[in-house]
Structure formats: C-alpha cells, structure tokens
Amino acid sequence: MPDALSRREFLGVTGAVVAAGHLAPPETLAAPALILRPASRPMAVSSLNGLRGINLAMEMVQRGSDTLDAAVEAVKIQELDPEDQSVGYGGLPNEDGVVQLDASCMHGPTRRAGAVGALENIKTPSAVARLVLKYTNHIMLVGEGAKRFAISYGFKEEDLLTPSSRELWLRWRANRGATDDWLDVPAGEKMVERPTGTINFNIVDGKGDISSVTTTSGLAWKIPGRVGDSPIVGAGQYTDNEIGAAGSTGRGESNIMVCGGFLTVEFMRQGMSPTDACLATLKRVVAMTPDRLMLPDGTPNFGLTFYAVNKKGEAGAASMRPTRYAVFDGKEAVARDTAYLYPRAK
Ligand code: GLY
User: Fold this and answer.
1) 160 or 190, greater pLDDT
2) How many whole angstroms from 112 Cα to the centroid of ligand 1?
3) Rounded to whole angstroms, how far apart are CA atoms 129 and 273?
4) What integer best gives the mean pLDDT of the chain?
5) What structural domains and CATH numbers belong to the chain?
6) Residue 160 CB: number of other CB atoms within 10 A?
7) Angle, vertex CA 42, rays to CA 32 and CA 130, nearest 5
C-alpha cells in the first residue's frame, strides 16, 4: 500500500530519538533502558458503528501493523458502506444535496496530524487525511484543493449520494418551509430527524503506540461549506503518544468550543480514567452551552459523546444521555453502555 506508514518510517523516528540523545547509544545501552517502556494492553474504542472496524484493527495490530494504518482501515469499512449514512459513501448531504466529508487523524509515535474538510466526491476522507499527514508539510486541506490532492494520489471521483440518501434529502427539501414552492411530503410518510453521525476510532497497540481517526459526512442538511469538529485536530480527535487518545461524535460546534479531544487527553494526563476524563469534558461542554441550546429543564438539547483510550490500554466513553459504544474486550469487539450526564430525554 503506497499510503501505509512503513516500518522504515517508524524505525526512522526511533533512530531520531536515539540521535537526539534521549536514549543511550547501542553499545552503552544498559538493559533497563529497553524495558522502561511498559507493555500496553492492545485496545481500541470507538463509536458504536466501529464494531466491525475494531475486530479488523485489532487483528491488524496483532499482526504488526501500525496503529494509524489499522485505525484508517477500520473506519474505511463504514466510509465505504452505503448503509452508514453518517460517513463517506451514502452520507447525508448538505442543504444543496451535495455530500461534503470531513476527517482527521493523528499518529502518536511520529506526533503528526492530517485532516480534510468539505471534501466532495471521494469516498474515504480518512485515507486522504492520512496522506496529508504523511506527505505534506501541512495539516489541513479543504474543498477543491483537498479533492485535487486526493485525485493526484489516484483516488477516483465518484457520486457519493446513494438513492436512499438522495430520497431523504429530497423529503427534507420538500418539507423545509411552509411558504416555498415544494409540495410537502404527505403526513405520515417517512421523514428523518437531523442526525449528526460520525465514526471516531482510538487505538493503542502492545508497544503503547497510539493513533486516532474521526470521519464524518457531518450534520445532515448543513449550510454548504460548514465543517464540524471531526476535521479539527484537538476537537474531533487527538493523540498524545505518552498519554492516550480521545475523540467525539455528536454536535460538532459544541465540541469545538472546548477542544474536546485535546481536553480529554489532558484530563487523562492529570490522572483521570478514560471514562472520567470523557465525563469531565462533557461538563465543560455544558458550562459553555448558551441558553438557546438548552431544554426547559436546563439540560442541553443536543447529543455529544466522547471516547478515550489511555496508554495502558484502558478505555471508556461518556455521553450527554445514555447510548452505546464499541470497545475491544480482549477477544473481540463488544457494545457497552456509555457513562452519561443526564437520563434519556422524556
Ligand atoms: N461531529 C460531527 C459533526 O458535527 O459534523
């Protein structure tokens, strides 16, 4: 794979650390220096739509793949699945009926990041974000430039609307305003709410190397050009190879206001467990939420979930209201209940 992070690159980073004097040269290397870095328990945690991806990614890292390559392959399962209308191919479009995709990733061992925003006609934005990380001196490419960049690496331009996602958009457009010229969908026929699905994926391998990826088609029916938290490094996802990784799904604007991926990793740095760190970030979100986004009972009217893994291989997730997430249980991916701040809305 031309875009996979090669073993040589990984070794190159290790070599640079030696050259910078962080490790003794090989001839004087005392045995304890090599065992200072404790083994980690391989672990992955993601939004619930990452169940299949966790199984693939854990197999990959157990065979020696790099954590970022494993994470990107995991989320690509959803990006390429026309039934997942929250990401990639088949994702719900903006108000003009155009699918615009956002993604970002971080690679802990090399301390690098890549992202794309408002990318059109390319099914797998996570893989494009990884190319930005690997081959450029930049972190984020957007719009037409991001598309031209992807095409230069051989990605195919494709129509991302499936018949089903187009149908949902047409129904939303028909019912959009009471005084427009579109005839309303008859009462009782299927309409969808305004979902903000996404996949966030965080992984640590047995060496303690960590990566994270988030990819999305964003808020359905969004204003063209809107990007949410997913492509924002530090909001949609963040990795610090010494501490852990975290990311989110849900109302992106509310996450951007607290830099939630970064903040959750910082809470873990202070000693919190992954679950407690996610809860602490949610409390910060609530503190930053304006009245117009509050229900009459004083709780937020939107959903937001954080997922986190630490370097030891402990994982957790927390959401505004109860939901489910996906996590590796040592053998396979399982669904678990999130911790939460408020009971399910009545
Ligand atoms: N969290 C996905 C979005 O707001 O676009």
Assistant:
1) 160
2) 22
3) 29
4) 90
5) 43-159+196-340 (3.60.20.30)
6) 23
7) 105
- State the pLDDT confidence band at 4, using cuts at 50, 70 and 90: low
Do 45 and 327 touch, CB atoms closer than 8 A? yes
Helix spans in 153-212 (H): 163-174
Query: Which among 102, 94, 92 is positioned nearest to 122, based on CA atoms?
Result: 102
Sign of CA dihedral 304, 171, 144, 3: positive
Distance CA 318, CA 323 (A): 8
In this predicted model, which residue has the larger pLDDT, 189 or 268? 268
pLDDT band with cut points at 50, 70 and 90 for residue 196: low
Residues 6+ apart with CB under 8 A from 313: 40, 41, 42, 43, 204
Which of 199-208 are b and which e, b meaning 16 or more Cβ less than 10 Å from the residue's Cβ? bbbbbbbeeb
Task: Spell out the residues 6+ positions from residue 220 whose beta carbon is closer than 8 angstroms to its own.
Answer: 92, 93, 168, 169, 172, 192, 194, 195, 196
Structure confidence at residue 188 as a pLDDT band (50, 70, 90):
confident
Q: Which amino acid is at 89?
A: Y
Distance CA 26, CA 106 (A): 30
Average pLDDT for residues 264-289, to the nearest whole number? 98
Report whether residue 197 contacts ligand 1, using a CB cutoff of 6 Å.
no
Q: Is 294 helix (H, G, I), strand (E, B) or coil?
A: strand
Q: How confident is the model at residue 183 (pLDDT cuts 50, 70, 90)?
A: confident
- Which helix (DSSP H) or strand (DSSP E) does residue 99 occupy? none
Query: For this structure, is 198 an active site residue?
Result: yes
The response to whether residue 252 sits with its C-beta less than 6 Å from ligand 1 reads yes
For 23, other C-beta atoms within 10 Å of its C-beta total 16
Give 212 Cα–ligand 1 centroid separation in angstroms. 16
Alpha carbons 99 and 91: distance in angstroms, whole number: 7
Nearest CA to ligand 1 atom 5: 218
Of 308, 309, 303, whose CA–CA distance to 322 is shortest? 303
Cα dist from 219 to 65, 124, 229, 252, 274, whole Å: 33, 17, 10, 8, 26
